[in-house]
C-alpha cells in the first residue's frame, strides 16, 4: 500500500488506530490526522498549482476541496483497503458505515511524513492516492458535494431547494456574498464568502449538518 | 528578510504584487497566496505537533488558527517590512489600512517553496516568522481573536453579547454543537463544530462579517 518499507512501525500502528480502540488519546490517530490533513493540503495544493498554471486561486481552492473533502477521502481510503486495516470498535455498527476511514488515510499521510519526510510523502500521495483514485477531468466537471447532496435529499423528499443571495457587502475592496439555503420557502442556513458559489456551498454544508444528513 | 539569496527573482516579484497593481491576474500574488497558505499550514502544523507532544488535536488546531489567522499574519507582515515592499495601488487609501500584507506574506512563503523547496521553506518560516514574531506562551493564554473582537465591539457600543448553546446533535458518535451569538437578545449568527468553544468562535467570526467589523 505504501510503496516502501515503513521505518517506524509504531507510528503506523497509531495511524491505524481509531480512538474507539484505545483508552489513551495519544495511542489513537487523532493527532496524526491533524498533521496529515495539513500535509495533504500542502501536497494537493502544490499539485494543483503546477497542474493548472493558468487557473485562478478560487478555482484551485475549489478543486482542492473536491479532493480532500471528508466523503472523497473516505471513499479513497476504502478503495485502498484501509477499512480492513483500521483498528476500531467493531461492535459499534455505526462506525462501520461512518467516515472514520478517511481519517485513517489522513493519519497515514501524517505517519509517512514523520517517518520519511516531505518529499517521500509527496511521492506517496501522488502515486498511491492521486494517480489511482482521482480523475481530475471528471472532478473538474463535478459540482462540489454539498450542494449536490442537498439537492439529492430535497428531490428524494419532495422538498423545494433554492439558493438565494441575501446580502452583498464590501470588505477591503472585496465583495462578500451571503447566500441562504431555502427549503420549502424557509431559510435554513446561510454562508458567507468572497463569491456566490463558495457562499452557497457553505450554506449547503451548514444545512446538511443542520438537517442531520451527514450520515 | 529571507536569510538566503533568492534564486528566481521573477517569482518574488509576483509574490509582492497585489492585484490592484496588475492587470493580469497571473502577474499578481493570488495564486502564490493560495499555495503559500497551504504550505504555511503544513509547516505550522508540523511545528506545533512536535512542540506539543501531549496536546490533543483540538488544541493544536486552535493554536494553529491563532498563528495563521488573517490579522496575525498581517501584523507579522508589517513588522517584517512587507508593507513597504508590497506593490499595490497606493492611491487606494483603503488598501493601506487593509490586511493585504498578510496575503503578501503567504505569497512569499509560496515563492520560497517554489524557489527552494519544502525544507528551506520550513527553515525560513521557523527562523524568520515563528521565532521572531510568535510568542507561544502568550498565544496559549490568549483566547482566539473572533470572540474577543466581538466582545470589544459590544463593550464599546453598549451592547450585550452572549453565546448560547442552541442545539446538540450526534453525528458518527461525535457530538455537534450549534452555538449562537446573541446581541442585545437577538440571535445574529450561529456556528457548528465538534466542541462548544470552536462553535462559538465560528459564530463570532460570522457575526463579525455580518456586522461589517472586518476592518
Description:
2 copies of one chain form a homodimer. By secondary structure, the first copy, chain A, is α+β, with helices and mostly antiparallel strands. Chain A has 2 domains: 9-141, Ribonuclease III domain (Ribonuclease iii, N-terminal Endonuclease Domain, Chain A, Orthogonal Bundle); 145-210, Double Stranded RNA Binding Domain, CATH 3.30.160.20. Helices cover 59% and strands 13% of the residues of chain A. In chain A, strand 2 and strand 3 form a beta hairpin. The two termini of chain A are 28 Å apart.
Defining key terms:
RNA-binding (chains A, B), RNase_III_sf (chains A, B), 2 domains, rRNA processing (chains A, B), 215 residues, ribonuclease III activity (chains A, B), Double Stranded RNA Binding Domain, mRNA processing (chains A, B), homodimer, Ribonuclease iii, N-terminal Endonuclease Domain, Chain A, alpha+beta, 13% strand, three-stranded antiparallel sheet, globular
What layout of secondary structure does this protein have?
2 copies of one chain form a homodimer.
Chain A: H1 9-15, H2 30-51, H3 57-68, H4 70-80, H5 82-85, H6 93-96, H7 100-116, H8 118-133, H9 136-141, H10 145-156, E1 161-171, E2 174-183, E3 186-193, H11 196-210
Antiparallel strand pairs in A: 1-2, 2-3
